[in-house]
Amino acid sequence: xxxxxxxxxxxxxxxxxxxxxxxxxxxxxxxxxxxxxxxxxxxxxxxxxxxxxxxxxxxxxxxxxxxxxxxxxxxxxxxxxxxxxxxxxxxxxxxxxxxxxxxx
Length: 104
Fold this sequence. Notes:
The protein is of the alpha+beta class and 104 residues long. It is built from 1 helix and 6 strands.
């Protein structure tokens, strides 16, 4: 295994490995590309919370002022509840699940 820097183009051989892992990564890459197309160049900020350590989140803010999105991900093996109304987030997440929401 070797970490890949995000700034270095690489090619991935999707023929081997676990099909479920492949489908997860392909979905994430498609969604990431769509977010980049929508927001353009953006800054990323963590969402800090004290009450629940079972999820992580961050905000993507377009540098040209065209939009904001928030990402919430469950980092545990148990269901968790995200309740951050200021970020349009009030939902359950299954283990490993994530959601991208538009912020007003």
